[in-house]
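[Q] Does anyone have a clean structure-token version of this?
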Amino acid sequence: MKKIISLALVFAMAMTCAAFADAMPGGSRLIFTTGGAQGTYYGFGGVLAGKVGEKTSTTVTAITSGGSKANIEAMDDGDAQLGFTQSDVGAYAYRGTRLFDEKYDNFSTVANLYMEQVQIVTLDPNIKTVADLKGKNVSIGAAGSGVYFNAVDVLKVYGLDVEKDIKPTYQSFGDSVEALQDGKIDAAFIVAGAPTTAVTSLATTKKVYLVGFDDEHVLKLIAESPYYSMNVIKKEVYGTDEDTVTVAVGAVVIALDDVSETDVYNFLYGIFENVDEITAAHAKGAELNLNFAASYTAVPYHKGAVKYFGEKGIKVAGK
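[A] Here you go.
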């Protein structure tokens, strides 16, 4: 019996080694700070963390957080080693502008994973354009958050001031949805990959409307801030009457510079060598693409990412 058990253990170890054959050995344990429990960062981040741990020697634990800015600050404080950030927020942090009073230059890019749509959600069918938000009670994300600055940017191109022309409230995605459902606000800015859990939950009990953008204002916004790109949320996502034209920013994973080359390499290996399995677990997996992952230019790539992409024939700028 002992011999059979020993043989079984040897076989299991051999299979594990085979699974890690192309990943790098000697990985460590990392904390991956994501976003709110009802946002895409946390849901998708948990799937990614699980797959990296399953397929490589690196263990990743995804935790909830206050989002992009909070993630960068948590990493700087040593409370996490990996984090999600909006592409625009990552650039602001690295340069020490807008949300940040100082430069945060101790992190590097791991990958640009998918697009985060600016979703302006309402239950009022009479709110059809951004201009219709004038005088309304509107949630614009937590004070100083990436969502807040997205709201500022969007309202500005429509000639609206966030403090003078709307009645702003500063709420998380989950709180925004509750406030919409209770009739306490008229609309909410939610910047996350669609479908977003909070909005999906709302759409199961209420008729949800998304406020769309016209081409003129989309082009004006992109001209003023190149972090944005035009995007379309299909009507099937939330059961809206028609597709909605909006703008989006990238969802970027970053890592502290002192995270090992092995761990960042393994993080990318665990994701991009297992896209089909990830897609089966979360819809955002369908958007994973190596060329897009290597497309972020605002912050240099981590040495582990440079190695991984280099083996795929893609050159990225590293530190």
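[Q] Thanks! Anything notable?
[A] The first strand starts at residue 29 and ends at 33.
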